[in-house]
Amino acid sequence: MLRWAVLIAAALHCGLYTCADGLRHKVLYPAAHRVKRGLVNPTFQHSVEDVKLLFEILLAGFRMEDDRGAFSVRDEELASLRQTQELANICDEVLPRKLTDIRRLTAQLSRYQGHLRRPDFERTVLTMVYTAYQLAHTTGQQRDWWAESFLSLFSAIKHDLTVQ
Question: How far is CA 110 from CA 78, 141, 153, in A?
Answer without folding.
Answer: 35, 23, 9
